[in-house]
Every structure is written in structure tokens, then in C-alpha cells.
Amino acid sequence: YRDILPPRVLSAQTYPRRLALWRQTLGRDAERVVLVAEAHKRIVGFATAGPNRSAAIPFRGELYTLYVLGDWQGEGIGQ
Question: What pTM was computed for the model?
């Protein structure tokens, strides 16, 4: 994320904070979903989605996160 997020945001991303965030994400209601892409018994990407969080967007659902390892980008995993 070095080229995407400001340094102050990155420095705040500690392991305990990220672990707490993932526990919260995985423990939410059934309307939210986490998808994991695997290749060769290894996680190569993930996505999170759920209800639309903005009244300004005319869709019921929203893709919150989509991440694919660089070596696997362009292989159709995020489709």
C-alpha cells in the first residue's frame, strides 16, 4: 500500500489492529461476505462485500475490498 496510502495511515496498521479488524469483518452478519481465492494451496487474493453503505449509490450491494497478489493479477481471479 506504500504508493496508495499516506505514511501516517500505514504506520498505524499494526498486526493487532489488523487482526481485530479481520475478526470484526468475519464476525459480522450474514449480509456481508468474505471470499478467498486459492491457487496451489495458497491464498492469492480476497474480496469483501455487503450491503451498499451510501444512499448516493443506486445499488443494493457494494464491493468493499478486492486484493490479488501481484503475481496473480491479470489471471481472472478478481472477476
Answer: 0.73
Query: What is the dihedral angle through the alpha carbons of 18, 49, 26, 24, rounded to the nearest 10 degrees?
Result: 50
Q: Using an 8 Å Cβ cutoff, are 36 and 46 in contact?
A: yes
Average pLDDT, the chain: 90
Write the secondary structure of 40-63 as one string of H (helix), E (strand) and C (coil).
CCEEEEEEEEEECCCCCCCCCEEE
* SS3 call for 24: helix
Rounded to whole angstroms, the Cα distance separating 52 from 70 reads: 28
Which three three-digit cell numbers place residue 68?
490479488
